[in-house]
Amino acid sequence: MDNQEHDPFDDLLIRLEPNLPSREARYIHLRLKMYKFFEWGRCKESWERADETLTRLVKNVRAGEHVRSYSYVYTIAQYVFSEYRRMEKRDESIANNATPPTARVADPTLDCKKECMARLEHDKRELLERYYSGEASEDLAEMLGISVENLRLRIHRIKKKLMQCYHDCLKGSGPQ
Length: 176
What we know:
mainly alpha; Arc Repressor Mutant, subunit A; 2 domains; 0% strand
């Protein structure tokens, strides 16, 4: 009997590409398909997006997800593609709305915003920062040991608390 551990990802590669001669050939073929998917979508860094897709696929398969066809793989690729597009739009929006430093207008509500962020518990502030920094929601939720839906609910509750603080501060005409 073989001393190597059984790898569910190897089984997936065999199911997806049974006619290719080796694990390496199957993996390269799958990676190339993912690269082409992102190239067709005109993604910058298509190889990196393909690798991100395969990393998520391997993680899911080794966690026990049963994958039968390429449709599951392309579903993951679509999520990666959607995240890419959101980040691209966000970056484009930031670039288009950037005001030169000399032309910036003072924000009269900035003190309230700073005060409310400072009042927020450290772990909640850090969670907000990581959530809005572009970190994948799935990765952040996994790190916390919760579902993506529960992560979004936590973020909503933190934002609600911040907004209440912000409105209270504005009513009082400044930080208290």
